[in-house]
Amino acid sequence: xxxxGVVGVGKMGLSHLAIINALExxxxxxxxxxAGYLLDVINKYTGLNVYPDYTEMLASAELDAVIIATPxxxxxxxxxxxxxxxxxxxxxxxxxxxxxDAEQLAALAQERNLVNQVGYHYRFVGAFQETKRLLDxxxxxxxxxxxxxxxxxxxxxxxGSTWRTKRTQGGGCxxxxxxxxxxxxxxxxGQAEGASGTALNKIFSxxxxxxxxxxxxxxxxxxxxxxxxxxxxxxxxxxxKITIWGTNGRLYADRQEVQIxxxxxxxxxxxxxxxxxxxxxxxxTEPVSFYIRGEEYxxxxxxxxxxxxxxxxxxxxxxxxxxxxxxxxxxxxxDFENDERPRAPVAAxxxxxxxxxxxx
Amino acid sequence: MDKxxxxxxxxxxxxxMSEEKARAQAMRFQDIEAVIGVLDAAFEEGVKTFMCTxxxxxxxxxxxxxxxxxxxxxxxxxxxxxxxxxxxxxVTEDGMLGALKRFTPDEGLLSATIKGGMSFAxxxxxxxxxxxxxxxxxxxxxxxxxxxxxxxxxxxxxxGLGFNEAFRIFDDHIRAKYDAEPxxxxxxxxHLVSVLEQVGIENPIVCSxxxxxxxxxxxxxxxxxxxxxxxxxxxIAMSVFASGALTPEEAIKWISEQPNIQSIVFGxxxxxxxxxxxxxxxxxxxxxxxxx
Lengths: 360, 292
Description:
- The complex is a heterodimer of chains A (about 350) and B (about 290).
- Chain A is α/β, with parallel strands linked by helices and about 350 residues long.
- Helix content of chain A is about 35%, strand content about 25%.
- Chain A folds into two domains: about 1-120 and about 290-315, NAD(P)-binding Rossmann-like Domain (Rossmann fold), CATH 3.40.50.720; about 125-290 and about 325-335, Dihydrodipicolinate Reductase, domain 2 (2-Layer Sandwich), CATH 3.30.360.
- Chain A has eleven helices and 14 strands.
- In chain A, a hairpin with a 2-residue loop joins strand 11 (about 240-245) and strand 12 (about 250-255).
- In chain A, helix 5 packs antiparallel against helix 10 (about 320-335).
- Chain B has a single domain (about 5-10, about 35-55, about 70-265), classed as TIM Barrel.
- The chains are: A alpha/beta (about 350), B alpha/beta (about 290).
């Protein structure tokens, strides 16, 4: 039985807590959050052990692993403290606000041979996994252009003030929404090499961005355009999509399906014909043992527990891979802030300083 | 409960297969008259129960039914609460407490509870839960709501947390205030049924995916079959067509062979589809095999 502590019971933390608590191979031995009223309710109604203080939890709870779902600004110190105690770590995305920290944490986890995973759940969505398989089989030939999009109805009016409304805390459309398609790009095409034409627009927010546009370049002349907007009411919920053009055709993928047009059949893909092929999530999805709101959320935690059980520190969504996404985000901010076109200032002053560590 | 219940996913751009189809449906049903047109077709085909989310737009349907009481005298709503995305987006925007405040009509109670500092006493959690339920039920005032469901995201979140007491609170309030039967939608039916049994909720109405290919039947098809056979539960099957992966005929035939299924909930956008589902159910279930 893997003993797990859940840190931060906001929206993601609560979902992780419920899933991990229902998994057979895991038991929740501690829940940590600074909000006393929430801890009281959890303790009273579920009997779980609660800690208002993270350091105290690490010192006194019996743990093999922690799930960290606090705002990103807290991740580095919390993750480091857990790794130094020899705990396996699952951390929410975006991993850090400074990719140098992310790389250091990745090295520390590797040195200690600990499972280190970040919650980029789209890598557990059947359609995006199938996309990876198709690209690895070179289905599209030489890829030239990728469109990576995410839209949803999060900030629809100028209101609200939480950590999510401040970029300095890791809030905003870039960190919250764009990180997902960026992470898929890293999975498919590796580390981004450069960013240009980045726009981090405010639509309703005061202290962060609501709309993200950018052009990223990858190895082998792959160019990707990013179009992300979390103030789009025409979407019922977050929708992430990837379109890829190559010499042998075009692929479109979202959470529900993969559509691929192949100019010529591909020998390694006997189940795909020339012309249009469509695969649906119903066929691509692996069953999970407990479901709350999508197989991918359960799948990533089942995977985390299994990786600990199998002593497999070579897991997907590793800190190292998440550092690539942190680095792409930093490139985009850097590109935006150093752009000399006339425009209204957006980021808080401290943000600029924070990212000055980044050198192209 | 009727054998055939009419669902509402198609009206709100929810389609588990394709975002394109979902958007086309959202466009088609943008005008509430289009929704009412399909509901009328279902009604005329003898499908008289509408199992619907407490989405803002359902309030418009409810207004229409209230305005035509004679025509819809036999029309029944099975509300399913809450509409989870409304809360999830609010949490992202305002944080946990901010969201709760936004949806609790009596802000005073919540503020007092939190300012109280110490802890939520049992009655406070109960009080807030009741307020949230009542806020969701407002749109159905004066209409028939003999069964009221807890939506799967909430049911399964509580189930995972082990917050079993919450089912008791929901159950008691639905019976006492609305003189209705509580129901539970879940993606983890075997697990839920045993927990409800533990908290003394007997013979519950439980709606879950039940289909031939085992799509989203978490805990496994075998556990579902065992629960249906051995436990006292009134089961409603949803996703019987597994989002289109099965032909209607093989899907309904298979469902009719499973024990203890009281009703099927299905969605359709045309009279033709409603009619053909209706006749398949008549064919495989027969007129009397399922208690009404």
